Amino acid sequence: MTLPEGATVIDLRPDDLRAAEPLGDLTALPVRAVSLQAIEDGAHGLTPDLGPLIVICERGVRSGLAARYLSADGLDARAYPGGVPALRAALRGEAGGNGPRGDASHPGGL
After folding, report:
1. Which DSSP category does 18 fall into?
2. Cβ contact 1:84 at 8 Å
3. Full-model pTM
């Protein structure tokens, strides 16, 4: 599954995991680090002008919950199924195109 053009990636992972593997190294899309707690509290600071929000966590469990909260806040938010390992595998499996940074394919079932 690929990331849609014009989206913003929301990284729910803890600081240590974000530092170990920054999502900015996997995609040219803008990445924002936001905690699940901030999303649950409505203190996330995310706005519709960021475009579609693709929420990702380490394994894909918390991202679904976060996407539901963000959708309830009126934002276009979808979870990336399978988390960072699935994103890494999807980008590694791409043939042609612009490579991992700059993929602009439509997300399909995201």
Report:
1. H
2. no
3. 0.82
